[in-house]
């Protein structure tokens, strides 16, 4: 009985000891976790305060008489003139901001440069510190505003290389402000998303389809002349082909049959010129859907432009090759005395066709496959 009580007592002591150990381990783990969490929180606390210090700059605050920038109401009422080196007063700020309004004609640039200019010329000032524009606000303007760099270059206080003036990863109150971005490209430029049609450094704008150097009357006169000459070529070529078919037995011999093929090529090329006079065809041939001219063809959805090119180019090339063959046939008939010229021409019948049609098709395919 004594041994039984002693055994039970030992078991209870072991249980109590185990519980104490478990409580100690739990307390140690909890303290470690709390210590780690406290260190992490302290780390982020100091980091946030450090970032906030980098994003601010000490400067005297001045009240804003007109709390608008490019017509947009600013979400604060105090500013400073410490960032813009060319402005020492509200009047100079307004005058210098007005000089940048020419960028309204470059819509993509204007959309991203407004927050940057307002953040530099009219920064938010609070408790003797101004909110600096971020590096991201500056960098985003370099692409769409290439024209500034090319034509005039950025002033020193708007250069993104200055990391003190444009610190990275800073939140600026003007990043949340919605500016007016409803401006359009100035004629003769029109808006386009096609990079191939952008006019030099004016991103998002391309030359309009209709040539701006000619008046509407001059365009009409050119179209009238094209209609007359293309129509005459088509009519004469068709007349020659019809008459040749009527007397085909007499016409189907060299060199007369070569003239028949030349007239077929003339009909094809002339029809390519005349397609533009069908209702709405000229705009589809010459212009893209956004109002700019076709460049680097062919592309999807522009089959009429490609068809016109094939008819005109292939028809003209084939006609030129057949004309060269005609001069060769005349040379054989007139100059060459030995042998029968007609027999020589007949032997080269297949070579003539291969040269005329293969060359025109090959050149057409090569040009259509080129990108520039």
Automatic annotation (TrEMBL):
GO terms for molecular function: patched binding; transmembrane signaling receptor activity. The keyword Transmembrane helix applies. Residues 223-372 form the G-protein coupled receptors family 2 profile domain. It is found in: Membrane. One of its GO terms (cellular component) is cilium. It comes from the Eukaryota. Keywords: Developmental protein, Disulfide bond, Membrane, Receptor, Transmembrane, Transmembrane helix. GO terms for biological process: central nervous system development; commissural neuron axon guidance; pattern specification process; smoothened signaling pathway. Residues 56-173 form the FZ domain. It is a multi-pass membrane protein. The chain crosses the membrane at residues 13-33, 224-246, 258-278, 304-331, 351-370. PANTHER family: FRIZZLED, PROTEIN SMOOTHENED. Belongs to the G-protein coupled receptor Fz/Smo family. This is Smoothened-like protein.
